[in-house]
Amino acid sequence: MATERIDTYLEAHRGEFEEQLKALIRIPSISAQPDHDADTRRAAEFVRDNLCAMGIKAELIPTKRHPIVYGEYVLAPGKPTVLIYGHYDVQPPEPLEPWLSPPFEPTLRDGNLFARGATDDKGQMFTHLKAAEAWLKTVGTLPVNVKFLIEGEEEVGGANLEAYVAENRDRLACDYAVISDTSQFAPGMPAITYGLKGLAYFEVIVRGAKTDLHSGTFGGAVANPCNALAVILASLKGSDGRVRVPGFYDSVRPLESWERAEFAKLPFSEAEFQANLGVSSLEGELGYTTLERRWARPTCDVNGLYGGYQGPGPKTVLPCMAGAKLSFRLVPDQEPATVSRLFRDHVRAVCPPGVTYEIIDHHGAPAVLVGVDSPGIHASVRAIEAGFGKKPVFIREGGSIPVVGLIKTQLGVDTLLLGWGQPDDNLHGPNEKFCLADFHRGIKASAHLFEELAREKSAS
Ligand code: BES
Ligand code: MN
Ligand code: MN
User: Fold this and answer.
1) In 10 A of CB 26, how many CB atoms?
2) CA 199 to ligand 1: nearest atom
3) CA neighbours closer than 13 Å in the CB half-sphere of residue 257
4) Which ligand is nearest to the Cα of residue 121, counting in written order?
5) pTM above 0.90, yes or no
6) 405 pocket-lining for ligand 1 (C-beta < 6 Å)
7) Whose CA is nearest to atom 15 of ligand 1?
8) Residue 127: what pLDDT?
9) What does the pLDDT look like over 102-130, one tens digit per residue?
C-alpha cells in the first residue's frame, strides 16, 4: 500500500520538515510594508525552490506588487486535478512588545512553534508541499494532478491575484480546490470549514474648518468632525446588535435549522469563552448564540479611529479632521458592492451638517458556503481521519479568504477548507503559534487526501 510507505517517509523526515518550515518563517515576508519587499520576494523564491527540489515545475509570476508562485505536476491523465492555494505573505508583527520571542525567530514552547506566519499561512500551506514530496520521493509520482497557487498579497487584499485567476482560467482549471488557512474546532477536534464570511472594508474621513481651531473660542458654533464622525458611527448599530444600515439584511441567507442544531451540539462554553477574553459580557445580535453570531450573522466593527489631539496631556482643540476605518463582515448572499452602495446612502442620510466627508472603499470579499455532501468532502473526511485519527466536525468561520470566491466564480469549483490551526493560534496578533503535532498530522492528511481524491471520479 502506497500510503504505508508514505507514512514511513513522513515519520522519518519530521525534523527536516520542521527545519525547512523554520527557514521559511525566518523570512519576514510582510506584504503590507514596502521595506520588506525584498524579503517578501525571498519567501516566494523559497516556496518556488522547494517545489522545484521535489521535481515539481514551478515559477514566479511577477505582478505589480508581490509575485505569485505557480507550480504544477500534471502527469496523471484521467485523474482529477487538485488546485492547492496558500499564501506566503504575513501580517505585520507590530506591536512587538507583547511578543515573548522575536516574531521572525521561530521558537518552540509546549509543542507549539511561535512566530508570525506559523499558522497563517506558512505552516499550513507547507503541509501540502511536504505531502507532495512524500509521494514523489517514495512512489515517484502523484496519484492526482496537482497545481500549486501560492500568493503573496492575501493579507493586503491585493487585486493582482484576481486578475491572474481571471486571465488564467485554463491553466488553473481543476476538479477540486484545497486550502489550509483556517482552524480546527479545538485540540483533538479537526474540522472542515464549510462557510466563510465576506468583507466590505471602508475608511470614512470627515472634514470641517480649514484648520484646527481653539475649542473655547469656536466650539459650539462650528461643526466638530470628531463629533460628526461619532454620530455617523453610532448610527451603524442598534442596542439589539443589529446593523442599522437600511437594506443591509435584505439578502442575508438565514441559518438553516440543521446548522443551528449542529452548532448547538459542539462543545462550546460561552462562559469559558467570555472568561478567556476578559470581557464582562458577550454582546451581539439578539436571538443568536455566540457561535451563530461569529460564524453566520453579518456584523459591523470599527477597526480604527483617528482625529484630534493624540499626544500626552490635554489640548483644547476643535480638530479639522477625523477618520475611521470600519468593516462589515458579510454572509451569503450579501454582495460587497451592494453593501458599499447601501453604506454610502446611509452615511449621506445621517452625516450632520457643517462637515464634508469622503469614503474610501478598501478591500472586499464575498462570503462563501459550500455543500457538505460532495465527493471532495467525503474524501476530505477520510483523509482527516487518517491524519488526525478523528472524524472532522463541520464548522463555519468569521474570517475571510478572498480567493475562495474567485475559485468559485472563475473556475466553477467549491473549495475544500481543511484547516490545521487551533482557535487560539493568535493569527494577526502577538505570539502567533502553530502546533507542530498538527503540522505533521496536516501533512499526513494531505498525503492521504491525494489518494482519496484520486478514488473519487469527479468533483460534481
Ligand atoms: N487565514 C485568514 C482567514 C481566517 C481568519 C481563517 C481567522 C480562520 C480564522 C486570512 O489570512 C485572513 O486574515 N483574511 C483576512 C481577509 C483579508 C481580505 C485581509 C480577514 O479575514 O480579515
Ligand atoms: Mn491566511
Ligand atoms: Mn491572515
Assistant:
1) 17
2) 18
3) 0
4) 2
5) yes
6) no
7) 400
8) 98
9) 999 999 999 999 999 999 999 999 999 99
CB of 332 sitting under 6 A from ligand 1: no
Asked whether 430 and 124 are in contact (CB, 8 A), the reply is no
Query: All 3 cell numbers of residue 8?
Result: 514511513
Ligand 1: which of 85, 91, 119, 181 to mutate, most ligand atoms within 8 Å of CB? 181
Here the contacts of 339-345 (C-beta below 8 Å, separation 24 or greater) are 339/200, 339/245, 339/248, 340/200, 340/202, 340/364, 342/245, 342/246, 342/247, 342/248, 343/200, 343/202, 343/245, 345/246
Three-state DSSP class for 213?
Answer: strand
Query: Does the beta carbon of 157 sit less than 6 angstroms from any atom of ligand 1?
Result: yes
Q: Which residues contact residue 281 at a Cβ distance below 8 angstroms, ignoring those fewer than 6 apart?
A: 274
- When pLDDT is cut at 50, 70 and 90, the band that residue 157 belongs to is confident
Instruction: With residue 264 as reference, give the H or E element that holds it.
Output: helix 257-265
CA of 120 to the centre of ligand 3 (A): 6
Cα 87 to middle of ligand 3, angstroms: 9
Return the residue matching grid coordinates 476605518: 325
